[in-house]
Amino acid sequence: MQMHPMSARAEAQADDLGFGFSAMACECEVRIAGLGRRQAEPLAREAIAEVQRIESKFSRYRDASVVSRINAAAGSGQPVEVDVETADLLDFAAQLHAGSGGLFDITSGMLRQAWDFKAGRQPADGQLAQLLPRVGWQRLRWQRRGPGQVGRIELPMAGMELDFGGFGKEYAADRAATLLQSRGVRHGMVNLGGDIRLVGPRPDGRPWVLGVQHPRHERALIARIDLADGALATSGDYERFFEQDGVRYCHILDPRDGRPVSHWQSVSVVAPACLAAGALTTIAMLLQRDALPFLQSQNVGYLAVDAQGGIHRHEIWQRGESASVRP
User: Fold this and answer.
1) What is the pLDDT of residue 316?
2) Is the pTM of this model over 0.85?
């Protein structure tokens, strides 16, 4: 599996302790400030273990994961019972599907079968037409009595799949950050491939300075964002892609036709939680030309780079702290 670099990083300070690791096919880091290494290291290891737990439980690449178990039962006529944590994420997926007009669809990951981004190969004639009938949250059967309850899910057609890749990383970042907070950490962050959840400001009260990767220049920044709390997430057309005849084909696929989006190079969102920020960036990429009115309606800060390299941004203020974006 290809390892993806971070799309955003915090500028390091002398009192920061960083603990790097790999998870979910990307470079990751837990950073803690204001504590000595003897205190910080076991806390960081707990947070890393939480990320690894979530990857093991929900990755489609793990044969023993909940998602793999659900996918293996597709077309069998047998629903799969899931625990409360999984049920909460499935409810969230249902909300995202409804709120995006069907564009955010966790059954659409199987469209990747038609695209080979590593080899630079487009779908064969008729391949998308064969796959699209197996895509659609509305086709599956999801039952749950209410919050705090287990649930039952059934994929009625053989070949249907669920893929939590659209929010798994962001969920893990939030959970790891919440764990750090519960252990008394007040200054730190969890960075999973550039999707960042902060744990308070820097020890002196100043915001963290987060650099956002330029979507066309891997070693350059397109902006710096000052953020004291909350989360930052980014989606872009540069994570997995190939170019043919001057056209870029990226891994973010429209579930309606199975084709890559093309209107935005990248979208970054600042929100209170990484799960929300990440979902909004993906929906914005899928909405294409309608993304900005949608983001403005969500009352979040954003930085969007269009296909021509034009920058569109909106700043927000939360809890008295500025979330400012600057070149």
Assistant:
1) 56
2) yes
